[in-house]
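Hi there. Long-time user, first ticket. I'm pasting a complex I've been working with (about 344 residues overall). I'd like to know whether the download I got is complete or cut off, because the file seemed smaller than I expected. Thanks.
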Amino acid sequence: MLKGNLTCENISRLILPYIDDKLTLEQRNKVALHLRNCPFCMEKYRIIKSLFDKIKQRNIQRAKKFQQYKLLSAYCDNEVNENTRHNIEASLALSCELTQRAIKIDMLKKILNNTFESRFQNLELNLEKKVMERLKKDNIFYKIMNIFIKN
Amino acid sequence: MKYNAKNNNLDELIELARSGDTDALEEIIRRQQKTVFTTLYYLNAKPDEIMDLTQEILFKVAKNIKKLKNPRTFKSWLNQIIINQFYDTLRKKKKSVKKVCLDSQESEKTNFEIPDFASNPYQKVVDKELEFAIKNSIYKLPDPFKAAIIMRELQGLSYEEIANATNSNIGTVKSRIARARLKLQEYLKPYLS
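Hi, the file is complete. Here it is re-exported in full:
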């Protein structure tokens, strides 16, 4: 159905960019005009918009949760400034969930550190002599090369 | 009486090495070799290449130490060399044609086993499963997360040092470490409860 210069088929393609605010003003106006006059497309728009809002909200919450985790992770590494440290400690005192997350980070740090330490505790490589020997040969080679280049 | 390089701290050794002291340079190599080796191990260098790669990286350190302007940036600089060398080798390998030995029955190893150096057999058994799980979990991380968490937890580098080593900013390092931790917590869940 042609309403406001756009068919229902056009609207199907334009609904998402319309909701996501990716259209030009002229395009937006045309879509809005069609929606006002087409109950079928309006219903479709409402369903998609509600789904879109839910996803957006979930993403915002996820991002917020990650920001909080990121701060906590940096706090466990002692990589936050004094002010942030105080704020985090105040939040930790009030929230069991947050405290548990901090404990988990700490546990992870411990098992990683212990494993890294014990895994190669007795490793003997003794590469220093080989490297120094190679460096010596390399220096001699470059000295000879320089003599040839100068001559 | 000649000084003993073993008594100096890393910053002093770097200063001495930059002015041409070979004893100091040798001591730096001796101290850093294990760090280079273990970093490569957790970055997942192949067991048959890890020793050569370690040697190559240490040689680059020895050869270029005079170019290092600030001894305080040594750890970042060393890690830059490790990461560049490791990924260069990977890239070169991807480009080269794979050769298949028709006589060999052995299939390509995906489980990277390297000799176990722990001396206590009991401890070895107890730690083996966890060590294997950690190695595999780190292996599954995307490359930037992997490098960041290894530098932090294995080497104890600060966020600033990691940022310098990976040519990124502290905010990015913070995110990478946090994301790596979230993933590792998921993979290692049975060991964290």
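A couple of notes from our side: The CA atoms of residues 104 and 110 of chain A lie 10 Å apart. The mean pLDDT of chain A is 91.
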